[in-house]
Amino acid sequence: MSNITITLCEGQDDIAFLTRILYINGFEKYNDKLENFIKPFDKLFISNIKRAEKFGFSPTNYLIPSVVLSKEDNYVLMHNLGGDSDGRSSEIKKILGMYNGIKSDEDDFSNYDFDYKFLLFFDADEDIATREKSVCKLIKREIKHNEMSENYGLYIFHKDGSGTLEDILLELMKIGNESVFDSAKKYVENNKFDDQERCKEFVCSNSKEEHKGSSKFYEKKSIISVAGQLQFSAKSNSVIIEKSDYIKKVDLETNNKCKEIADMFMKEL
Questions:
Q1: What does each of the 269 residues of the chain score in pLDDT, given as a tens digit?
Q2: 118 and 11 belong to one structural domain
Q3: Does residue 155 sit in the same domain as residue 185?
């Protein structure tokens, strides 16, 4: 019997963080060929890859797991939604429908020896209750933060009821590195732009120069990035989160939120 945990995350930073937690609980990255993955998921993912529509710097194909981890007969499939739950409702519905849609007359779950569950991870932002409400509406079932409802689980990143993943990350990363992160924070505060237009995407072509969209500046993300560049030059926050020694095993093991997250993954293993 294989246990499949299908994990939906707002972005790659979330996946990097969850990966760190799973590593210390005995999971490893699955690096075998896709065609050798457990059935019927092998054909499902291969068919989705063949449907690729674009070249270039496009977002990760959310229908293909960004990372797969395994421990004996337990597999964690992590999907990158590329945005928050409210803005990515279509993607979430498609992912849930894709897995639930494996059940059919020709390709029934009952033909395979595995069980599965869904775990959804989102930022609280303003507050946990509002995020819970939006997720419940989206997946059409009642579900609470840090709880399972049948085979669905929800975890909301927060600090004292509001906030984001970065609040948890900074709490972990600053342990023993206070001077580095204090300096990074001062640098960001002293140099951030007063003109928020300059924090938007800049379009520069032969016909126009203009800013568009919304501001892409997030102070806590920038602090992590500045501190991370001292170890991993020109790397993204997701690489820093996954590979930096700013996060230690003992801190992951003793942090209450990390223990809650680990428990959600490890239930019924």
A1: 789 999 999 999 999 999 999 999 999 999 888 778 888 888 888 787 766 655 554 456 888 899 999 999 999 999 999 887 677 888 999 999 888 877 554 554 456 667 889 999 999 999 999 999 999 999 999 999 999 988 999 999 999 999 999 999 999 999 999 999 999 999 999 999 999 999 999 999 999 999 999 999 999 999 999 999 999 999 999 999 999 999 999 999 999 999 999 999 998 65
A2: yes
A3: no
Separation between Cα atoms, residue 27 and residue 29, nearest integer Å: 7
What is the residue-wise DSSP string for 200-233?
Answer: SEEEE-SS-EEEESS----HHHHHHHHHHTTTST
| Domain co-membership, 219 together with 154 | no
Task: Supply the range of the domain harboring residue 221.
Answer: 176-243
